[in-house]
Amino acid sequence: MLFFLTDLLTLGCINAIMVVSLNVQYGFAGILNVSQYMYVAIGAYVAGVTTMGRPTVPGNTWAPGWTLPWYLGLVLAGVVASGLGVVIFLFTVRRLRMDYLAIVTVASAYIIWNLIDTNYGLFNGDTGIFGVPYITGNANLSTEQYSGVVLAVAAVILGLFVWVSRRIFRSPYGRVLRGIREDEVITTAFGRTSWRAQLWVFVIGCFMAGVGGGLLIFYITAWSPAAWLPIESFALFSALVIGGSGNYWGAVFGGFLVLEGILELVRFLPSFGDPAAAGAFRLLLVGVLLIAILRYRPEGVIPERWLRWYGAPARRLWGRLRPGVSQ
Amino acid sequence: MADGDVILDVRGVGHAYGGFWAVRECSFDVPRGSVTGLIGPNGAGKSTLVEMLSRSLEVHAGSIVYDGMEMQRWGPERAARHGVARTFQTARVLRRTPVIENVLIGAQGQIGEQPWKAIFRRRAWAGQEEALRREARELLDWLGLRDHVDAPAGSLSGGQRRLMEIARALMARPKLILLDEPTAGVFPEMSRLIAQRVREVAADGVTILLVAHNMDFLETVADEVVCMAQGHVVARGTLDAVRTNEEVISAYLGHGSSGARRRAPEGV
Q: How many A/B residue pairs have CB atoms within 8 Å?
């Protein structure tokens, strides 16, 4: 039972990191990036191959096979993911808007997926990489204990990313991004070059996604193309929309509830018929939830609005409390 | 206003939609610190011209010299950075965003817009942000929007949105403001306030070019008017002089108007 809980929380934290990373791109800046899970995957691969050394089982190849400490692996995962992000950004986001952008980002994810799936030199093709050591090194830990360790690390990183999101949201930079999201004509008429402003938030989002992927591989110790079918990006999007796009707490909520909660909920269903039905049922449930949310609560469970006027009520109250000042 | 000091010189400018030249061979200049009205019947090309001057629309012919620089190839961002601020023909606001945040979009050169500083060096921009917020509040107060500072801009009425757009333009500390129909759909009380504020802004040395149909409004604000018809400038001068100009009258009434009907139509 304890393992069930820590496992749930650990994966929840990691998923929340991914949704938070999507939130800074789509929620804050309106960049319709439907390939976010690709950056997660790149992060996972990079974190794996830079920390686990060369393959020991014959017939497997991956590069570069370094044995860096796990935290450097995580940073590298973020850096490589954001580097790829810059390249893709300059080809796509800079030139395209909305639906076209969505199409091209999906296409980019399929291209990269196929490249990795069929090339064995880099990340061992469709077999994938495996045997990533625990971040605790050789200390003899049970799975429960290790789960707790990763949970602690993931929680700290999630907290850091939420803090970064909050800083962006409450800064003039966040304001300009929201302006671009809502009406680019206005921000352009007032001197802002959209793509320049969006580039950095895109890179930050890719970095977060890469780190999320790194954490995931340190936890599950293996990674292969089957784990990151481009369709997974839509799950991230569903989570963000249901949780509340634009609100970082909404993103955290979406990561825990949609990606983790529903999956675990399905586990308690009595098994019936085909064992694959549970997985299908999960997707079905997400779909139904998505439709219900879009119909009855289009801003998500925790709408952005709740953050927007954080200052106003507090200021009014303060004005009332201070003697001699009316507002 | 220094004599002969021109901030904007429009030289034979043209723009074609498909094969149709909405603005063609259009030339006039705008003295620094003046309020110039742009009038003309519907379809005369006034808004097309304003779009070109704000650099949102391509200039297909001629050149525009702004403050000594040829600006016809600039993008709108560059024009804004050089001190051209504008409002839109139909007011554009971020509906779900509080009014004050909308107005702050206008402010140029914000340190906190640099991503790194925004996230990691709050102290570098907090002071500027505080000052800008204060300035925005004062502007909104001055334009009679004191009670709406924290309300979402979507809750403002049409007239209030126009006032908010003016506040946003002023936040940019511009040299030239382009107002596209600032009084369209605004009730008289409020358009009087807008007229008064426009005069006060001009008195501070800011040049204003505005498109307007309301002659009472123009009478109070404009030093000079430029009348356009079918993409050309047909007359230019004080409002009274332009009103009695034959070409202007025929532009408004059509070419077949008889001598007996040769007076300005109601409101012109």
A: 94
